[in-house]
Structures are given as structure tokens and as C-alpha cells.
Specification:
This protein is α+β, with helices and mostly antiparallel strands and 159 residues long. It has 4 helices and 5 strands. Strands 1-2-3-4-5 form a 5-stranded mixed β-sheet, with helices on one face. Helix 1 packs across helix 2 (35-49). The radius of gyration is 17 Å and the shape is globular. The model has no long low-confidence stretch (mean pLDDT 94).
């Protein structure tokens, strides 16, 4: 059985450790920052959205788990935020642990999230995917996301 559920306070520190390291690597790769700078930027982003831990009105951190008979294993995480004015939600992070990848858990998580959102009147789901993350891009397109634009940057060198 697969499920998504609200993250528990005792699970938040492990999520923070994963997110800061993972997002820090993405920032360094995408924007050319040193790892020290990238890690600091990742910490700042996480703290900006969750200044009081999981106590956030707009942002939801979910755990994905699989199991049976009361024995569940953590599969990954899903972070999204509802924009009530637009009747939309934005996925900030979708992560499946290495040992569970390729088993359809990300697709199941998106499907369950869609059902939850539709039940409260949310009619659009958005996200951003890094250009080099081909696996994620293919997954999102398989479940019905369409490309709506491109983020671009250019590093300027001092003369």
C-alpha cells in the first residue's frame, strides 16, 4: 500500500538535511556558485518558507510511504504550496529515495496529490524542473504536465 501523509515534526530535521544538500548541489550546478554559497542559499530558502518548522499556512510537506500491516517505510518527500487566489498549487520538491526509484511512487504521489487538491477546488498544479534532470522532465510529461516556459540565466564576467 502506498500513501502520502503530513510530515511529522520529528521527521522535519531529516528532510532539512536532505533538502539543503540536494538543493545546494542543484544551485551550484545551475548557477555556478561554490558549494558553500549554494548550501547557504538552500538553507535561506528553506528557512524563508518554513521559519517555524512545519507550522506553515501555505506550504505542506508530505511523506510518501509504502507498506502493509502497520509497517511502513519512508519512500520520499513531496513539498507543495497552494495559491488560493489562483486555485493552483506549486510543487517545490518531489524526492524519491534511490532504493525506491523506478517503481512508480512519484507518479502515485502526484496522482494522490491531484485528488486531494481537486477535492478542495484546486484546478492547476505547477512545478519547475532543472534542465539537466531529464528523468524528472520525462516523468512530469508522462503524468500530463506541459512545458510553459524556460528559466534562463547568464553569468556576467567583469572586464
Amino acid at each position: 500500500m502506498f500513501a502520502i501523509r503530513d510530515m511529522r515534526p520529528e521527521e522535519f530535521p531529516a528532510y532539512c538535511d536532505y533538502f539543503i544538500a540536494d538543493y545546494g548541489c542543484e544551485i551550484a550546478k545551475n548557477y555556478g556558485h561554490s558549494m558553500d554559497v549554494a548550501i547557504e542559499l538552500a538553507k535561506n530558502d528553506l528557512h524563508r518558507f518554513f521559519p517555524h518548522g512545519l507550522d506553515s499556512k501555505e506550504h505542506s510537506l508530505l511523506c510518501m510511504e509504502v507498506g502493509a500491516d502497520g509497517q511502513f517505510s519512508l519512500v520520499g518527500y513531496l513539498w507543495h504550496a497552494i495559491n488560493a487566489k489562483e486555485n493552483s498549487s506549486f510543487i517545490y520538491d518531489l524526492y524519491v529515495s534511490d532504493e525506491y526509484r523506478g517503481q512508480g511512487f512519484a507518479k502515485q504521489a502526484i496522482s494522490l496529490l491531484e485528488k486531494q487538491l481537486q477535492s478542495i477546488g484546486v484546478n492547476q498544479l505547477k512545478l519547475r524542473v532543472a534542465y539537466h534532470n531529464q528523468r524528472a522532465l520525462e516523468l512530469y510529461q508522462e503524468v500530463g504536465f506541459v512545458i510553459t516556459g524556460f528559466n534562463m540565466s547568464k553569468n556576467l564576467q567583469n572586464p
